[in-house]
Amino acid sequence: MQELIDLDREECEALLRAGVAGRIAIATPTGPHIIPVNYSVVDDAIVVRTSPYSLLGSYGRDTTLAFEVDQFDYDEQRGWSVVARGRGDFVTDIDELDHIREVWAPQPWVGGSRTLYLRLRWTELSGRRVGAGWDALSRMPARRSL
Amino acid sequence: MQELIDLDREECEALLRAGVAGRIAIATPTGPHIIPVNYSVVDDAIVVRTSPYSLLGSYGRDTTLAFEVDQFDYDEQRGWSVVARGRGDFVTDIDELDHIREVWAPQPWVGGSRTLYLRLRWTELSGRRVGAGWDALSRMPARRSL
Protein backbone atom coordinates (compact mmCIF):
# COMPACT_ATOMS: atom_id res chain seq x y z
CA MET A 1 0.00 0.00 0.00
CA GLN A 2 1.28 3.40 -0.97
CA GLU A 3 0.78 6.95 0.15
CA LEU A 4 -1.42 9.39 -1.75
CA ILE A 5 0.47 12.69 -2.09
CA ASP A 6 -0.90 16.00 -3.38
CA LEU A 7 1.13 17.58 -6.18
CA ASP A 8 1.83 21.29 -5.92
CA ARG A 9 0.68 23.67 -8.62
CA GLU A 10 4.07 23.79 -10.31
CA GLU A 11 4.22 20.00 -10.63
CA CYS A 12 0.64 19.89 -11.94
CA GLU A 13 1.43 22.47 -14.61
CA ALA A 14 4.66 20.76 -15.66
CA LEU A 15 2.89 17.41 -16.13
CA LEU A 16 -0.09 18.99 -17.86
CA ARG A 17 2.11 20.95 -20.27
CA ALA A 18 4.22 17.91 -21.13
CA GLY A 19 1.33 15.63 -22.06
CA VAL A 20 -0.08 14.61 -25.42
CA ALA A 21 -3.30 12.72 -24.67
CA GLY A 22 -5.87 12.92 -21.87
CA ARG A 23 -9.59 12.76 -21.24
CA ILE A 24 -12.37 15.31 -20.90
CA ALA A 25 -15.40 14.81 -18.65
CA ILE A 26 -18.45 16.66 -19.85
CA ALA A 27 -22.03 16.95 -18.64
CA THR A 28 -24.70 16.01 -21.17
CA PRO A 29 -28.49 15.75 -20.90
CA THR A 30 -28.07 12.00 -20.22
CA GLY A 31 -25.35 12.38 -17.60
CA PRO A 32 -21.57 12.63 -17.59
CA HIS A 33 -19.38 11.33 -20.42
CA ILE A 34 -15.62 10.79 -20.74
CA ILE A 35 -13.90 11.43 -24.05
CA PRO A 36 -10.24 10.63 -24.77
CA VAL A 37 -8.51 13.46 -26.63
CA ASN A 38 -5.22 14.64 -28.02
CA TYR A 39 -4.52 18.04 -26.57
CA SER A 40 -2.15 20.91 -26.39
CA VAL A 41 -1.60 23.57 -23.77
CA VAL A 42 -1.56 27.18 -24.94
CA ASP A 43 -0.96 29.79 -22.27
CA ASP A 44 -3.19 28.68 -19.39
CA ALA A 45 -5.67 26.68 -21.42
CA ILE A 46 -6.09 23.18 -22.77
CA VAL A 47 -6.98 23.12 -26.46
CA VAL A 48 -8.42 20.18 -28.39
CA ARG A 49 -9.64 19.87 -31.94
CA THR A 50 -13.01 18.28 -32.40
CA SER A 51 -15.97 18.12 -34.76
CA PRO A 52 -19.04 20.34 -34.33
CA TYR A 53 -21.13 17.15 -34.27
CA SER A 54 -19.23 15.42 -31.46
CA LEU A 55 -20.27 15.38 -27.80
CA LEU A 56 -17.64 18.05 -27.12
CA GLY A 57 -18.92 20.11 -30.04
CA SER A 58 -22.50 19.75 -28.88
CA TYR A 59 -22.16 20.28 -25.13
CA GLY A 60 -18.69 21.73 -24.52
CA ARG A 61 -19.47 25.41 -24.75
CA ASP A 62 -20.14 27.72 -21.80
CA THR A 63 -20.10 24.90 -19.31
CA THR A 64 -17.65 23.55 -16.77
CA LEU A 65 -15.36 20.82 -18.10
CA ALA A 66 -12.87 18.60 -16.34
CA PHE A 67 -9.70 17.43 -18.08
CA GLU A 68 -7.49 14.67 -16.78
CA VAL A 69 -4.05 13.34 -17.68
CA ASP A 70 -2.41 10.49 -15.82
CA GLN A 71 0.15 7.77 -15.93
CA PHE A 72 -0.24 4.39 -14.24
CA ASP A 73 2.77 2.22 -13.48
CA TYR A 74 1.18 -1.22 -13.16
CA ASP A 75 4.34 -3.05 -12.16
CA GLU A 76 5.12 -0.71 -9.31
CA GLN A 77 1.47 -0.01 -8.49
CA ARG A 78 2.01 3.69 -8.53
CA GLY A 79 1.13 6.62 -10.72
CA TRP A 80 0.07 10.23 -10.91
CA SER A 81 -2.85 12.25 -12.23
CA VAL A 82 -3.56 15.90 -12.85
CA VAL A 83 -7.06 17.34 -13.23
CA ALA A 84 -7.76 20.78 -14.71
CA ARG A 85 -11.23 22.25 -14.44
CA GLY A 86 -12.75 25.36 -15.92
CA ARG A 87 -15.14 26.78 -18.44
CA GLY A 88 -15.15 25.46 -21.99
CA ASP A 89 -15.46 27.73 -25.00
CA PHE A 90 -14.92 27.51 -28.75
CA VAL A 91 -12.13 29.57 -30.22
CA THR A 92 -13.37 31.41 -33.32
CA ASP A 93 -11.28 34.58 -33.26
CA ILE A 94 -8.74 34.48 -36.13
CA ASP A 95 -5.94 36.03 -34.08
CA GLU A 96 -6.51 33.61 -31.23
CA LEU A 97 -6.52 30.67 -33.65
CA ASP A 98 -3.27 31.92 -35.18
CA HIS A 99 -1.76 32.21 -31.72
CA ILE A 100 -2.77 28.63 -30.88
CA ARG A 101 -1.29 27.31 -34.13
CA GLU A 102 1.92 29.23 -33.48
CA VAL A 103 2.37 28.06 -29.91
CA TRP A 104 1.36 24.44 -30.29
CA ALA A 105 -1.48 23.29 -32.50
CA PRO A 106 -3.29 20.22 -31.13
CA GLN A 107 -2.37 17.22 -33.28
CA PRO A 108 -5.09 14.56 -33.30
CA TRP A 109 -3.94 11.03 -34.04
CA VAL A 110 -7.21 10.47 -35.84
CA GLY A 111 -8.06 11.85 -39.26
CA GLY A 112 -11.33 13.47 -40.26
CA SER A 113 -12.72 16.94 -40.09
CA ARG A 114 -11.91 18.51 -36.75
CA THR A 115 -12.51 22.15 -37.44
CA LEU A 116 -13.63 23.19 -33.98
CA TYR A 117 -11.08 24.38 -31.43
CA LEU A 118 -12.40 23.72 -27.93
CA ARG A 119 -10.57 25.57 -25.18
CA LEU A 120 -10.63 24.89 -21.45
CA ARG A 121 -9.17 27.79 -19.47
CA TRP A 122 -8.44 26.20 -16.15
CA THR A 123 -9.41 27.88 -12.91
CA GLU A 124 -8.74 24.83 -10.79
CA LEU A 125 -5.70 22.60 -10.99
CA SER A 126 -5.02 19.64 -8.77
CA GLY A 127 -2.90 16.55 -8.91
CA ARG A 128 -1.92 13.53 -6.92
CA ARG A 129 0.68 10.88 -6.96
CA VAL A 130 0.65 7.42 -5.51
CA GLY A 131 3.88 6.58 -3.78
CA ALA A 132 6.87 8.69 -2.73
CA GLY A 133 10.47 8.60 -3.92
CA TRP A 134 10.11 8.76 -7.69
CA ASP A 135 9.93 11.55 -10.23
CA ALA A 136 6.64 11.73 -12.10
CA LEU A 137 7.86 13.98 -14.90
CA SER A 138 10.83 11.80 -15.81
CA ARG A 139 8.43 8.88 -16.15
CA MET A 140 6.17 10.50 -18.71
CA PRO A 141 5.46 7.98 -21.49
CA ALA A 142 5.73 10.67 -24.13
CA ARG A 143 6.97 14.20 -23.90
CA ARG A 144 5.82 16.99 -26.08
CA SER A 145 8.74 18.23 -28.15
CA LEU A 146 9.20 20.85 -30.81
CA MET B 1 -3.42 10.04 -39.59
CA GLN B 2 -5.26 6.95 -38.47
CA GLU B 3 -8.76 5.60 -38.70
CA LEU B 4 -11.17 5.67 -35.75
CA ILE B 5 -12.83 2.25 -35.47
CA ASP B 6 -15.73 1.29 -33.20
CA LEU B 7 -15.11 -1.74 -31.01
CA ASP B 8 -17.88 -4.32 -30.80
CA ARG B 9 -19.48 -5.20 -27.48
CA GLU B 10 -17.39 -8.32 -27.03
CA GLU B 11 -14.13 -6.42 -27.49
CA CYS B 12 -15.31 -3.69 -25.09
CA GLU B 13 -16.12 -6.24 -22.40
CA ALA B 14 -12.84 -8.12 -22.83
CA LEU B 15 -10.81 -4.92 -22.44
CA LEU B 16 -12.94 -3.68 -19.54
CA ARG B 17 -12.68 -6.98 -17.68
CA ALA B 18 -8.92 -7.18 -18.15
CA GLY B 19 -8.13 -3.75 -16.74
CA VAL B 20 -6.84 -2.64 -13.36
CA ALA B 21 -7.10 1.16 -13.33
CA GLY B 22 -9.41 3.64 -15.03
CA ARG B 23 -11.29 6.86 -14.40
CA ILE B 24 -14.80 7.77 -13.31
CA ALA B 25 -16.59 10.92 -14.45
CA ILE B 26 -19.15 12.17 -11.98
CA ALA B 27 -21.51 15.13 -11.86
CA THR B 28 -21.16 17.36 -8.80
CA PRO B 29 -22.85 20.63 -7.83
CA THR B 30 -19.83 22.49 -9.28
CA GLY B 31 -19.72 20.54 -12.55
CA PRO B 32 -18.11 17.33 -13.78
CA HIS B 33 -15.07 15.76 -12.12
CA ILE B 34 -12.74 12.95 -13.19
CA ILE B 35 -11.32 10.59 -10.59
CA PRO B 36 -8.68 7.91 -11.31
CA VAL B 37 -9.53 4.61 -9.63
CA ASN B 38 -8.45 1.03 -9.24
CA TYR B 39 -11.37 -1.15 -10.17
CA SER B 40 -12.63 -4.65 -10.61
CA VAL B 41 -15.42 -6.07 -12.73
CA VAL B 42 -17.93 -8.32 -10.99
CA ASP B 43 -20.68 -9.74 -13.19
CA ASP B 44 -21.79 -6.79 -15.30
CA ALA B 45 -20.67 -4.05 -12.96
CA ILE B 46 -17.57 -2.02 -12.23
CA VAL B 47 -16.70 -1.94 -8.54
CA VAL B 48 -14.36 0.50 -6.81
CA ARG B 49 -13.51 1.01 -3.17
CA THR B 50 -13.67 4.55 -1.91
CA SER B 51 -14.17 6.60 1.24
CA PRO B 52 -17.58 7.95 2.27
CA TYR B 53 -16.00 11.42 2.33
CA SER B 54 -14.63 11.36 -1.22
CA LEU B 55 -16.31 12.88 -4.28
CA LEU B 56 -17.46 9.40 -5.29
CA GLY B 57 -18.76 8.77 -1.78
CA SER B 58 -20.57 12.10 -1.71
CA TYR B 59 -22.09 12.20 -5.20
CA GLY B 60 -21.81 8.70 -6.66
CA ARG B 61 -25.11 7.25 -5.51
CA ASP B 62 -28.29 7.06 -7.60
CA THR B 63 -26.80 9.05 -10.43
CA THR B 64 -25.39 8.27 -13.84
CA LEU B 65 -21.64 7.68 -13.87
CA ALA B 66 -19.23 7.19 -16.75
CA PHE B 67 -16.19 4.95 -16.40
CA GLU B 68 -13.32 4.91 -18.86
CA VAL B 69 -10.30 2.70 -19.42
CA ASP B 70 -7.82 3.29 -22.21
CA GLN B 71 -4.35 2.70 -23.48
CA PHE B 72 -2.36 5.17 -25.53
CA ASP B 73 0.59 4.09 -27.64
CA TYR B 74 2.50 7.34 -28.03
CA ASP B 75 5.17 5.97 -30.36
CA GLU B 76 2.68 4.56 -32.84
CA GLN B 77 0.11 7.29 -32.24
CA ARG B 78 -2.64 4.81 -31.69
CA GLY B 79 -4.70 3.47 -28.82
CA TRP B 80 -8.07 2.32 -27.64
CA SER B 81 -10.66 3.34 -25.08
CA VAL B 82 -13.76 1.78 -23.58
CA VAL B 83 -16.48 3.75 -21.79
CA ALA B 84 -19.10 2.14 -19.56
CA ARG B 85 -22.05 4.21 -18.38
CA GLY B 86 -24.80 3.44 -15.94
CA ARG B 87 -26.26 4.15 -12.55
CA GLY B 88 -23.99 4.22 -9.50
CA ASP B 89 -24.99 2.68 -6.19
CA PHE B 90 -23.30 1.68 -2.94
CA VAL B 91 -23.15 -2.00 -2.13
CA THR B 92 -24.19 -2.58 1.46
CA ASP B 93 -25.80 -6.02 1.32
CA ILE B 94 -23.53 -8.55 3.10
CA ASP B 95 -24.15 -11.32 0.55
CA GLU B 96 -23.42 -8.98 -2.34
CA LEU B 97 -20.22 -7.79 -0.64
CA ASP B 98 -19.18 -11.41 -0.08
CA HIS B 99 -19.84 -12.16 -3.72
CA ILE B 100 -17.72 -9.21 -4.83
CA ARG B 101 -14.84 -10.28 -2.57
CA GLU B 102 -15.08 -13.83 -3.89
CA VAL B 103 -15.12 -12.88 -7.55
CA TRP B 104 -12.53 -10.14 -7.54
CA ALA B 105 -12.20 -7.60 -4.76
CA PRO B 106 -11.02 -4.19 -5.99
CA GLN B 107 -7.43 -3.65 -4.85
CA PRO B 108 -6.56 0.01 -4.43
CA TRP B 109 -2.88 0.89 -4.76
CA VAL B 110 -3.39 3.54 -2.12
CA GLY B 111 -3.81 2.82 1.58
CA GLY B 112 -6.33 4.41 3.89
CA SER B 113 -9.86 3.65 4.86
CA ARG B 114 -11.88 2.72 1.76
CA THR B 115 -14.88 1.08 3.29
CA LEU B 116 -17.41 2.05 0.65
CA TYR B 117 -18.02 -0.20 -2.35
CA LEU B 118 -19.29 1.86 -5.25
CA ARG B 119 -20.85 -0.15 -8.06
CA LEU B 120 -21.56 0.96 -11.61
CA ARG B 121 -23.89 -1.47 -13.39
CA TRP B 122 -23.35 -0.55 -16.99
CA THR B 123 -26.27 -0.12 -19.35
CA GLU B 124 -24.17 1.43 -22.09
CA LEU B 125 -20.85 0.15 -23.34
CA SER B 126 -18.86 1.63 -26.17
CA GLY B 127 -15.29 1.59 -27.33
CA ARG B 128 -13.04 2.85 -30.04
CA ARG B 129 -9.62 2.19 -31.37
CA VAL B 130 -7.31 4.40 -33.33
CA GLY B 131 -5.66 2.56 -36.18
CA ALA B 132 -6.31 -0.84 -37.75
CA GLY B 133 -4.13 -3.95 -37.88
CA TRP B 134 -3.17 -4.46 -34.25
CA ASP B 135 -4.67 -6.31 -31.31
CA ALA B 136 -5.76 -4.07 -28.46
CA LEU B 137 -6.07 -6.81 -25.86
CA SER B 138 -2.57 -8.20 -26.41
CA ARG B 139 -1.22 -4.70 -25.85
CA MET B 140 -2.78 -4.22 -22.42
CA PRO B 141 -0.15 -2.75 -20.09
CA ALA B 142 -1.33 -4.95 -17.23
CA ARG B 143 -3.67 -7.88 -17.20
CA ARG B 144 -5.74 -8.90 -14.28
CA SER B 145 -4.65 -12.33 -13.13
CA LEU B 146 -5.68 -14.64 -10.31
From TrEMBL, chains A, B:
<dbReference type="InterPro" id="IPR024747">
    <property type="entry name" value="Pyridox_Oxase-rel"/>
</dbReference>
<dbReference type="InterPro" id="IPR012349">
    <property type="entry name" value="Split_barrel_FMN-bd"/>
</dbReference>
<protein>
    <recommendedName>
        <fullName>Pyridoxamine 5'-phosphate oxidase family protein</fullName>
    </recommendedName>
</protein>
<dbReference type="Pfam" id="PF12900">
    <property type="entry name" value="Pyridox_ox_2"/>
</dbReference>
